[in-house]
Write a structure and sequence with these properties.
By secondary structure, the chain is mostly helical. The chain has one domain. The chain is rod-shaped and about 80 Å long. About 5% of the residues have low confidence.
Length: 92
């Protein structure tokens, strides 16, 4: 190690030589955690798209039809629909 190397060292280098490190703030820990969470969300969304049992357009059509049907049930009964048609359209 030369004298020039010592002049170019920063605080973290000195602490590393002593076996220490700088104290991390709560904001740094939070950003790291949120970054990991975000990556997990992206991976989960990708896996969900790969393993989806139906194409997106089919699934949207089924959901739209179910919501429309349940909305009519609620209007006819005067109360909120209880999901009587939940199993309709699903193969056994």
């Amino acid at each position: 190690m030369k004298l020039q190397d010592i002049k170019n060292m920063d605080k973290d280098d000195y602490l590393g030589i002593l076996g220490l490190e700088t104290k991390h703030s709560f904001a740094n820990q939070l950003l790291g955690t949120l970054g990991t969470f975000g990556i997990g969300l992206l991976v989960g969304a990708g896996v969900a798209l790969i393993l989806a049992p139906k194409a997106g357009s089919e699934l949207r059509h089924d959901l739209r039809a179910k919501l429309h049907r349940d909305g009519k049930d609620a209007d006819a009964n005067g109360t909120e629909a209880t999901g009587a048609g939940e199993a309709a359209g699903r193969p056994a």
